[in-house]
């Protein structure tokens, strides 16, 4: 298996190598060969080459079987032109060019860590939801322009567009995922206001006929934000468009209280991309205190989704569980009476 | 003072009359005269006249000094054509026609009720934030269309538009409100992706120069959803565009755990509109169990904002506090050991 490693910025270059150590351990134990090659992305790429997504990086990704990304961005690059910034100049084009139309974000709460949630224990202990966000359409990639107005001032205009096909492929994926999990799918839209949401809902209704074993319901995005806080365990799989998904996935991950634990996958094209959901955290970079678990669990997602190596994926997940049960913690998930480990030492334990 | 009453649907016709009783009591005690006239809106208006926002209702609103709305909508009208539905056919046109460009939504948590929040007690007890949502622009009112695609399927296209002036007036209001409160303003946008957000941010930066006493910060909407859950008390006044505001205001109100307590104001035009933030709750309509407090507190907002009757407004708020302190509760905020009251009896107590 050929894997492209894109460590990126901040803590990225610390956590990605740790995830690779876990991957190598899995390779040894299960007799698999993983070939990793590293490329630049984000601020690090900008500093070295003048662009946050060098051609070479894109080519390496396209020639690989999967991609592991650390994180991009940091205050150092915040004042560049938008198209040179790590987020706009690297992340979004990477998603688009690789056709990664579905972002899978599990929000799960280990019983041992449920205390860390801002929500009351019972509301989140054992939480296990999967949000699927459309990732290459909508406002993110619509036409954008600025106009000067005759009376002074300006006008910004941008377009939110979705086609039947764009909705269909991501919703179909969501139905399939729901079938493999709790057989419940919540489609989130704003059909009482948006035309794109009405198209979205029609497509969902049409596809639902092919998945009679999945219990479907529609929820308005404003209500959904409330329900996620009020009673998150009511959900199993959720699916929504790009901008709503951006907001709801971050909201859901914050509910868990341990963002340093959450992996993600972006799929849909030839090659899929796996990354922790947390950011580049420049403030703690280089101190060996970042939590490597989200990236390590992203490796598990990669093994399961891109390579169908279920046993190998489960081995990583069990190792993480067991280490937590033995009381090991990084600083971000530290609790009284537990044993604090650094980035490298946590990976040793896993 | 001439006041238009629009009870609407569901529990609307139960709670609005209770709010009027409180208003009359204030009138007697402070020697003010409030003339109330009632008109139809929403499903009730559709049933009676064939349209959810009759001309007559709009005219009454325009001829009044303030409007008190109950709530609109219900399953009975969910399958009408969009433009005849209570939300799309009445609420949105009413906002637009009356020029109500700013929606003010306080999210406050009375110490006595903080236990009801899904969040841990310390995170919310004493919470007092004010979210200001732009209410007549953005995706809500942009052009919308549907196209058939040559290869089959369709495309939905809609426009998100903001002008300098539209941003300026609501942001100016937010700065003014922040000056009167904790002098902190958080402007929420998605400037790393949207052109309209970049315009938004530029206008905010420009206006900030006129309000040097207000501490301003910008926050991305995805991060904001997280911060609201992680540490809501970090906020004082927040301001954001229409769609983000729709999601964030509902999220914030759910954090309080007592939506039946939260009022709102929509201002900007000749006449302002006041309403509880909760919906029409058709399932509990007609049972004398709805919580009238959100509507009663909306009356207090009206007295303060539209009529500058600060003392009168404060009297209502004190009455509500005192009744809660004496242990009276409606069903939705009931706690062990407290005294449960119906809609009318709660109003009697206040
Ligand atoms: C950095 C930003 C452009 C990006 C997004 O909005 O998609 C991020 O928030 C994410 O969710 O991956
Ligand atoms: C009913 C709906 C159109 C409305 C909105 O989205 O503005 C509601 O959610 C609100 O927040 O007042």
Automatic annotation (TrEMBL), chains A, B:
GO terms for biological process: L-leucine biosynthetic process. Pfam families: Iso_dh (PF00180). NAD(+) binds at residues 74-87, 279-291. It is found in: Cytoplasm. Mg(2+) binds at residues 222, 246, 250. It catalyses: (2R,3S)-3-isopropylmalate + NAD(+) = 4-methyl-2-oxopentanoate + CO2 + NADH. Its cofactor is Mn(2+); Mg(2+). Keywords: Amino-acid biosynthesis, Branched-chain amino acid biosynthesis, Cytoplasm, Leucine biosynthesis, Magnesium, Manganese, Metal-binding, NAD, Oxidoreductase. Pathway: Amino-acid biosynthesis; L-leucine biosynthesis; L-leucine from 3-methyl-2-oxobutanoate: step 3/4. Binds 1 Mg(2+) or Mn(2+) ion per subunit. Belongs to the isocitrate and isopropylmalate dehydrogenases family. LeuB type 1 subfamily. Catalyzes the oxidation of 3-carboxy-2-hydroxy-4-methylpentanoate (3-isopropylmalate) to 3-carboxy-4-methyl-2-oxopentanoate. The product decarboxylates to 4-methyl-2 oxopentanoate. This is 3-isopropylmalate dehydrogenase. The gene is leuB.
């Amino acid at each position: 298996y050929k894997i492209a490693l894109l460590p990126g910025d901040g803590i990225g270059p610390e956590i990605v190598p740790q995830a690779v150590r876990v991957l190598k351990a899995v390779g040894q134990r299960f007799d698999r060969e993983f070939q990793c090659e590293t490329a630049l992305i984000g601020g690090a790429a900008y500093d070295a080459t003048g662009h946050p997504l060098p051609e070479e990086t894109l080519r390496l990704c396209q020639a690989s079987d999967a991609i592991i990304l650390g994180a991009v961005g940091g205050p150092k690059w915040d004042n560049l032109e938008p198209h040179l910034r790590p987020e706009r100049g690297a992340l979004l084009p990477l998603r688009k060019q690789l056709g990664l139309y579905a972002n899978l974000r599990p929000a799960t709460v280990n019983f041992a860590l449920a205390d860390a949630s801002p929500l009351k224990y019972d509301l989140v202990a054992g939480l296990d939801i999967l949000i699927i966000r459309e990732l290459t359409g909508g406002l993110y990639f619509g036409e954008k322009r600025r106009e000067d107005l005759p009376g002074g001032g300006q006008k910004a205009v941008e377009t939110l567009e979705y086609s039947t096909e764009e909705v269909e492929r991501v919703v179909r994926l969501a139905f399939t995922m729901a079938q493999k999990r709790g057989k419940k799918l919540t489609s989130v839209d704003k059909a009482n206001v948006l035309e794109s949401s009405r198209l979205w809902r029609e497509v969902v209704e049409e596809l639902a006929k092919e998945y009679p074993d999945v219990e479907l319901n529609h929820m308005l995005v404003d209500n959904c934000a409330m329900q996620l806080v009020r009673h998150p365990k009511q959900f199993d799989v959720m699916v929504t468009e790009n901008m709503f998904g951006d907001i709801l996935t971050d909201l859901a991950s914050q509910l868990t209280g341990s963002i340093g634990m959450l992996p993600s996958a972006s799929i849909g094209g030839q090659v899929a991309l796996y990354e922790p959901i947390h950011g580049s955290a420049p403030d703690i970079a280089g101190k060996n205190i970042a939590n490597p678990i989200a990236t390590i669990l992203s490796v598990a997602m990669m093994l399961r989704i891109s390579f169908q190596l279920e046993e190998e994926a489960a081995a990583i997940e069990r190792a993480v569980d067991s280490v937590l049960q033995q009381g090991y913690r990084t600083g971000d998930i530290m609790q009284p009476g537990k044993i604090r480990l650094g980035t490298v030492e946590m990976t040793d334990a896993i």
